[in-house]
Specification:
By secondary structure, the chain is α/β, with parallel strands linked by helices. It has 13 helices and 13 strands.
Length: 383
């Protein structure tokens, strides 16, 4: 058995031990602490700073006068011992919080029978649906993992009605918990100030790009978080040569990739680049659904499609998305010129409506209204 596989299995069993025994005991020690009616916690174990997916809701809670606590750390950058310390600290906050917001897997929140007064909201970090996830993907939750890392959610927000059955099955949650409110992160793409700031910041850093077409390659990672890898780098380098000086080619790899070996050539967050770029090239990344909100053309470059579809799989037909699929790198340049000359405007509009139909700039307000309306009626009482 490969060393990375052994390491992965050991890590999963340690997570089960934490979720099923250690953290529930810690929570019981703090359970006597009363819930503070105006205490809100934003928790994430993948970012040291507030994630993009939380920013709009974070601002809303501050504007409504809540005590907002950011509980953020990047588990990939700290030792296992420090991770345990952070989890213990969170359990104390968890016991006293009125609302807890997440945007990704966060094991401590699923590690106890939480108080009825505490509401747990999963904002999720992407819209749409493409590659399998959760219990449908062994890379996310292996078959031998016997607990549910999505336990305790009172609300999971999704971008469109088409996502509801997928989230129900992939998270093993009741349908009533999944709501097509739109996702909070999408509101920023309807915010004129945000769009202006993105443009001004970009051209301050890249003044030479004002007279160029801008292409962004934003691939996802393959493998696991601990052993990620990337395909297609050489093809993108060749594409850059073929396109010439009239193009600026930006690369934004998944953070898991950059933690291993820096591939990205731009420090601006991907979310702030999307309003600027003329063309997106991605593969199986959910970034394409944010990009759909802008109804700009994209290319799906998937040189490992045959392997990926067998090992990971999709919720829909890959070629049903409103962008051309390219398997061979030597066909990229031709596809770039073709799609810019003939953008599939109607297909992009329909794709946006299907995958992101509830994202209209008002998602955060709908989420907050739903929380207020259901804060007394909607509780998870069984664990």
């Amino acid at each position: 058995m490969h060393a990375n596989t052994i390491k992965y299995i050991v890590k999963q069993y340690m997570k089960m031990l934490m979720q099923g025994f250690f953290l529930p005991v810690i929570y019981q020690l703090y359970r006597h602490i009363p819930v503070q009616s105006h205490r809100v916690v934003f928790a994430d174990a993948h970012h040291e700073n507030l994630p993009f997916s939380m920013q709009a809701m974070h601002q809303t809670m501050k504007e409504n006068g809540y005590e907002v606590i950011d509980f953020l750390y990047d588990s990939g950058k700290i030792s296992p011992l420090r991770q345990i310390v952070f989890m213990i600290r969170f359990m104390k906050l968890y016991a006293s919080a009125r609302y807890v917001f997440l945007c990704d897997y966060f094991l401590p929140a699923a590690s106890c029978c939480k108080k009825k007064e505490t509401m747990l909201i999963q904002l999720w970090h992407s819209g749409g649906l493409l590659k399998t996830m959760g219990f449908a993907a062994s890379e996310d939750i292996p078959a031998f993992y016997k607990l549910n890392p999505h336990k305790n959610y009172d609300l999971v927000t999704v971008s469109a009605p088409c996502c509801i059955p997928i989230f129900v099955s992939s998270m093993h949650l009741p349908k009533s918990v999944i709501q097509a409110t739109g996702i909070s992160r999408s509101d920023l793409y309807f915010n004129a100030k945000f769009l202006t700031n993105c443009r001004e910041h970009f051209y301050t850093l890249y003044p030479e790009a004002k007279d160029k077409n801008i292409l962004l390659w934003a691939p996802t990672f393959r493998g696991t978080a601990g052993s990620p890898y990337l395909v297609g780098t050489e093809d993108i380098e060749n594409l850059q040569k073929e396109l010439g000086d009239k193009w600026l080619v930006l690369i934004k790899a998944h953070p898991y990739i950059d933690q291993k070996s820096l591939v990205s050539n731009c420090k601006i967050p991907t979310e702030q680049l999307l309003p600027i770029v003329d063309l997106l090239i991605t593969d199986y990344s959910s970034v394409l659904f944010d990009y759909l909100l802008l109804e700009k053309p994209f290319i799906l470059f998937a040189p490992d499609y045959a392997i990926y579809t067998k090992t990971r799989g999709f919720y829909l037909e890959y070629d049903s998305l409103p962008g051309p699929v390219v398997i061979e790198g030597n066909k990229l340049a031709h596809t770039v010129w073709d799609i810019l000359q003939n953008p599939p405007k109607e297909a992009l509009r329909k794709g946006r409506q299907f995958h992101m139909g509830c994202c209209d700039g008002q998602a955060t307000q709908r989420i907050w209204s739903w929380i207020l309306e259901n804060s007394e009626a909607r509780r998870i009482t069984e664990c």
